[in-house]
Input
Amino acid sequence: MKVLLDECVDRRLGEHILGHDVKTVPEAGWAALKNGELLRRAEQSFDVFITVDRHLPFQQSLSRYSIAVIVLRARSNRVADLRTLVPQLLEVLPAARPGEVTWVGI
Output
């Protein structure tokens, strides 16, 4: 799957999402875009958008977008805390559906 990591997710987490093509928002050239515009652009090239922004599903009507959204919930957004979620993340990635949010973690 083609995975896009939000700016608020440590880029080093991508090294642990094995078997998937992972890019960060800055690598895609979309740093500082508002969430709506970011999702519009991302849906053209990516299957899944991963964020730690717990408010995103409530601020955007995700059913309008043809990209799956996964929200990581950890003690912090430090890579050490996020890395503990990788096994669960890898498990849910194949089942993530466009226009829906999947919650991973606490």
Observations:
- Helices lie at 25-28, 35-45, 56-59, 79-83, 86-92.
